[in-house]
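Could you join me in thinking about how sequence relates to backbone shape in a protein? We need material for that, and I hope you will provide a protein of your own picking. Once you have written the record down, we can walk along the chain together:

…
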Amino acid sequence: MPPPSDHRPLDPSRFTAGLNPAQRQAVEHGDGPLLVVAGAGSGKTRVLTNRIGYLVATGRADPSRVLAITFTNKAAREMQERLRTALGSLAGDLWVSTFHSACVRMLRPYADRVGLTRAFAILSEDDCKRLLRDIADDLDIDVTQVPVGGAKAAISAAKNRLVDPRRFRLEAATARADAHARLYAEYVARLRRADAVDFDDLLVHVVTLLTEHDDVAEHFRSRFSHVLVDEYQDTNRAQCVIVDQLVAGHRNLCCVGDGDQSIYGFRAADVGNILGFQRTYPDAVTVTLEQNYRSTGTILEAANAVIARNEERAAKTLWTAAGGGAPIALRAADDDADEASWLADEVASLVARGTRPGDVAVLCRAKALARPIEAELVARGIACRTVGGTPFFERREVKDLVSYLRLALNPDDELAFRRCVNTPRRSVGDASVKKIRAFARAYDLPLSEALARRDEVEDLPQLASAGLGAFVELVRRVAEASERGGPAAGLDEVLADGCYVQQLLAQAADDEERQYRLESLDQLRAVASGHATIESFLDLASLATDADEEGDPGRVVLMTVHAAKGLEFPVVFVVGLEEGIFPDRRCLEAGPLEEERRLAYVAITRAQHRLYLSHARRRRVLGQPVEHERSRFLDDVPVDLLDVLDEPLAPGDPAGAAHLAAIRASLRG
């Protein structure tokens, strides 16, 4: 569809053409709250973008007053591209972004209201954990007993539930929770002193703006006449409050989601937000999208059977006009090595018959299950990639250089300072850095002032003092260069003398790694050159996630089911369907399995044409074989949908195992 002429009125009918009745009802809905319960593969993105187009075409919404919120940058880009095609230049006036990106835009102009400057830094997950390690050390908290990762997760969950440090301390019922509370209180204090926020703070601070500052709340309520939210089942308490506050005046809210695909409870997502939507908005219209455009009838029937056992859900049944399709292959493997070997053989056969490797996905409950499968694929010469590798902005050399820009923008950013002060080496060791930090704390000084007064630091080596002086001067030049020529010019200033590149290449293991590191520097500069200010570039760097990485049509993809959410593949293998693995052992011990069952539903509905399910009778755990029963989720799938490829051997049947191994060896020979 070519972009419309900016001088020709938009025809509303173009946004309803080709829709099924339920989709059309959602697109044409008038004012007031609307909930679109969109089953997997039911065209929810089309409905969401067409509704925005319809609102603009009918004159019911000015593009500049529409806010559309997604959960990933990739989804936001896809929506923006569709809207540009449909609306032309009008699409440029829309706010289409993730929750966190929208919150950055709302927070920066009013940062002073929550004790920040407009130049506040957004810390990465790695930076946050490093800060917590420092705090644990200062508070004499043993990180072997209170791991930093668990503490960060507990603090994140508390923030997303809008629980502050004081209330968190009151709720602490165990020694570990009490330690988390002490860390939380100091963590918040140090973030504020550093003029920094973490991802969760972006939400919390915007909640504060909207609930405690009436003028700010009124500004944004009048700024947006329509708010549309994708993946509403994944919202947490803080996000739900933000949405409710933004529409408090006009109540023109459209939420699209599927409670059956709510799988992020561990990130504080609350399925109750979508299930209780009608209680929050009693006059809301609910439209249910059940026609599926992705999967075969057989795959949908299996998915419906699995999810039907959940009690906390809105009733719906996916269906398709595309026909039944191939039966679902079920493989009972003797052990995890047998499972991996069978899967690799099957993928090799599919590729030989014309399937592109990139059309095949292997999904598992835990990433560790992918390792033997990856090894088998590689052994057969089948290219593959495991999702969850190091994202671009988490690469060492990228984080080093971004730290210089962070310091140029905020000279008091202690975490950025510690990362790059001795990179490349300037004779400023850890002991010297600790002396500077102790001096700053003793006199309650910001980092920049402590560095300016470094001559007053007791026992600071002369070489370290000289190195710090050269470093401060470099950061000053980076700031000046960035002011003149943008962040790319600032990066050029860091790299100008060649010392950083020389050290980076010297530390590489081989020529391949050296080339990889140099390519990272080129990519970083190319990205930075697209930004006029350090601020906008750092926002991009901070908000990018591994969910935004693009696929590769030449490689089989291996990923967790959580990572596969929102994706689809012609061929899907779901492996490790065993009790204690999928469903997960911890979930079995905790009680109801509603979210685990939703996870199984998501896994099944990623498949378009072919679905393979597998389980192993034995699986190695810490190097030892452990017996496993097949997952209860397999028992939910109607038998007549399955093509059972193998039955498991009887437990303790070494003769049978040897016989089967001999058969496989003869086939390969």
